[in-house]
């Protein structure tokens, strides 16, 4: 069952409308010593989304409903600087993407201003408890269009708004500013809004988003924050 509370809306064979969609979440506050962490996670399981560590980054295979779950999580992470947005993907029954050979991972998205030590995540995750359900509604134009020139600035020497990443406790962490999430957000939006029409017309189409992680630093790689990609692929077998 999807975490989206109402059916995905089509008009004709056109795009899916994200605006006005609702997502039900659980919000937990976890205390570790003198620190408190707010964790947002879906109220219902994401049944078909499988994230694997790969040689060139990470591979996420999703069905139609999971593209919408990812869009909500992405939008929330950009606008919730005091929260960790947690998608427990290891519990998904899907095995798609396992051919990439890496371990299966959960996904956590967070704002860089939180300065969360990922070494604490295993304990935070273990202390998550049942909580009241909260409803999130996507507004119109939730994902702004980013122009070509704005993307080009990502390669300037002093650019800081890239998505940092690391893996800890079987979890891929993406960490960045609102701008960092917005730069990659249109690809996430397109998975949910545009890919259903493409796949309805041609079910074998490869529909994906290549989300850039880390810093592209020429001519040498950045050892502290190496460039990589999160490849999010619509699963043709389970769409």
Task: Summarize the structure in words.
With 239 residues, the chain is α+β, with helices and mostly antiparallel strands. It has one domain (22-234). Helices cover 21% and strands 31% of the residues. The chain is built from five helices and eleven strands. It has helices at 64-79, 121-126, 148-152, 178-193, 195-201, and strands at residues 22-32, 35-42, 49-54, 57-62, 83-87, 104-111, 133-137, 164-168, 171-176, 208-213, 228-234. Strands 1, 2, 3, 4, 5, 6, 7, 8, 9, 10 and 11 form an eleven-stranded mixed sheet that branches. α1 runs antiparallel to α4 (178-193). The longest helix has 16 residues, at 64-79. The protein is globular.
List the helices and strands and how they pair.
Layout: E1 22-32, E2 35-42, E3 49-54, E4 57-62, H1 64-79, E5 83-87, E6 104-111, H2 121-126, E7 133-137, H3 148-152, E8 164-168, E9 171-176, H4 178-193, H5 195-201, E10 208-213, E11 228-234
Parallel strand pairs: 2-5, 4-11, 6-9
Antiparallel strand pairs: 1-2, 1-7, 3-4, 3-6, 5-6, 8-9, 10-11
Helix pairs in contact: 1-4
In short:
This protein is of the alpha+beta class and 239 residues long.
Extract low-pLDDT stretches. 1-13
**Binned strand content:** 25-35%
Distance between the termini: 14 Å
Q: What is the β-strand count? A: 11
Mean pLDDT: 87
The amount of helix comes to 10-25%
Estimate nothing, just give the exact number of structural domains. 1
Q: What is the helix/strand order?
A: EEEEHEEHEHEEHHEE
**Radius of gyration from the alpha-carbon trace, in angstroms:** 17 Å
Structural class: alpha+beta
In DSSP terms (H or I, runs of 4 or more residues), the helix count works out at 5
Form type: globular
Largest sheet: 11 strands, mixed
């Amino acid at each position: 069952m999807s975490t989206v509370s109402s059916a995905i809306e089509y008009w004709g064979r056109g795009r899916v409308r994200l605006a006005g969609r609702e997502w039900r979440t659980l919000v937990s506050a976890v205390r570790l010593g003198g620190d408190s962490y707010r964790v947002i996670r879906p109220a219902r399981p994401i049944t078909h989304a499988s994230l694997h560590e790969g040689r060139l980054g990470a591979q996420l295979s999703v069905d139609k409903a999971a593209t919408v779950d990812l869009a909500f999580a992405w939008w929330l992470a950009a606008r919730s600087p005091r929260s960790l947005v947690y998608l427990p993907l290891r519990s998904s029954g899907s095995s798609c993407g396992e051919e990439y050979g890496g371990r299966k991972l959960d996904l956590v998205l967070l704002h860089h201003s939180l300065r969360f030590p990922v070494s604490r995540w295993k304990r935070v995750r273990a202390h998550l408890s049942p909580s009241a359900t909260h409803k999130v509604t996507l507004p119109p134009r939730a994902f702004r269009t980013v122009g070509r020139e704005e993307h080009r600035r990502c390669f300037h020497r002093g650019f800081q708004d890239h998505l940092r990443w690391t893996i800890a406790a079987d979890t891929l962490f993406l960490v960045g500013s609102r701008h960092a999430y917005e730069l990659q957000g249109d690809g996430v939006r397109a998975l949910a809004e545009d890919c259903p029409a493409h796949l309805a017309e041609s079910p074998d189409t490869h529909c994906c988003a290549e989300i850039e992680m880390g810093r592209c630093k020429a001519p040498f790689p950045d050892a502290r924050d190496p460039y990589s990609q999160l490849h999010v692929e619509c699963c043709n077998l389970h769409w």
